Amino acid sequence: MAGGPAGMRRRRVGTRRSGVRPADRAAETTRTREIAAGRTEWKCLAKSAGNPHSEHLAKAMRRDETPTGERAFMQTILNVVVPIFALIAAGYLSSRTGLLAASVGDGLTKFVFVIAVPALLFRTMATASFADANPLYLWFAYFVAVAVTWGTASILVKWFFATDRRTSVVAGISASFANTVFVAIPAVDRAYGAEALEALFLIISVHLPTMMIAATLLMERAATQDAPGDDGVPKPSSVARTLAAIGRNLSRNGIVVGILCGLALRLTGLGLPSDLDEAARLLGSTAGPVSLFAMGMSLTRYGLRGDLRAATLVSLLSLLLMPGIVYVLGVGLLPPVWLKAAVITAACPAGINAFLLATHFQSGERLAATVILVSTFLAVASLSFWLALLG
């Protein structure tokens, strides 16, 4: 037998090699080089290779290119969390060092609320498809979480820290009134893109009116209970007068106006002309970075002025309990992208509205201010956790 066993092995190897088409061998070699270089263009390569088993090769490559848990976690922090809080820090330092006056921050905040975010909401409400999903499930998951978190925070703060009723309501508002404008919009946009923003805007469309009405009515009721009349009987409050005042304030709110105008244009079926669409897009694109910078500047006026233990408790409920409830309720009801948007929105730090309401009713201001500061700092870790968990 010529060549012996070694010759037979060479012939068998040569037979196997001869069964592979040169084009396939070249394509597989190319794929190997791409994987070694760490590139992620596996879909295009798989389609262009002409290999009948390209789908299996593509899946194998995708498994090889999937980062480890630690690497994915760090990539999430670098891509989403670090830019967000870097902008907040830049705003804070520019105000703290006196580089920019406090009036600049006030102007930027007004620009965000009156121009940038209304333009973004108007364009989205007028043109978005909303993925043909049912917003009722989205609102159910989110606002049940709001109610549970609000009630839990109010009860625990009143129980453990012996506060009055108004302060306990402020605690509930601070725990459940997420910063949907200054933090949620840029976070959801950077993490999941335009489709996730559609879900966020559906939340915002009912979030502000619902939260403001509920918060104001509960604060009015708590103020009545905390301040009885001369005869020891609580002073009655007019619900109609309170609702009328809320309605007037909401009718002048730029965010509400942007939502209503966008929905009105959508119902007409006329569509948004391309030049106006581009103008609205350019204005809306400034909402994220400007809002983060303005928020950083505003943090200099808040401080650790309240009970740090109560503020930490409220912050943890806001950053962990509320998004956890949204996830549990929404995981079987919502499309994956909508679920991610809702959870990240719920995991955002406390918004400024709780502080504004506390200031208006002159109760719980120190707690509300401290919660804003503490929850913003803790959100660096909590947002990283939720982003890594959701993928």
What would you note in describing this structure?
The protein is built from 18 helices and no strands. 79% of the residues lie in helices and 0% in strands. Helix 5 crosses helix 14 (287-298). It has 391 residues and is an all-alpha fold. The model is unreliable at 8-20 and 34-67 (pLDDT under 50). It folds into two domains: 22-66; 69-390, Up-down Bundle (Na+/H+ antiporter like fold), CATH 1.20.1530.20. It is globular.
Topology:
Blueprint (H helix, E strand, L loop, with lengths): L3 H15 L3 H15 L5 H7 L5 H12 L3 H28 L5 H26 L7 H27 L3 H12 L3 H13 L1 H33 L12 H13 L2 H15 L5 H12 L1 H12 L9 H23 L5 H11 L6 H9 L3 H26 L1
Distance between the termini: 60 Å
CATH architecture of the largest domain: Up-down Bundle
Catalogue the unreliable spans: 8-20, 34-67
Helix content: over 70%
How many individual helices? Answer: 18
What is the CATH first-level class name of the largest domain? Answer: Mainly Alpha
Give the amount of beta strand, in percent: under 5%
Summarize it.
The protein is an all-alpha fold and 391 residues long. It is 79% helix and 0% strand. Helix 5 runs antiparallel to helix 9 (180-192), helix 7 (135-161) runs antiparallel to helix 8 (165-176) and helix 9 (180-192) runs antiparallel to helix 10 (194-226).
Characteristics of this structure?
391 residues, mainly alpha, 2 domains, 18 helices, globular
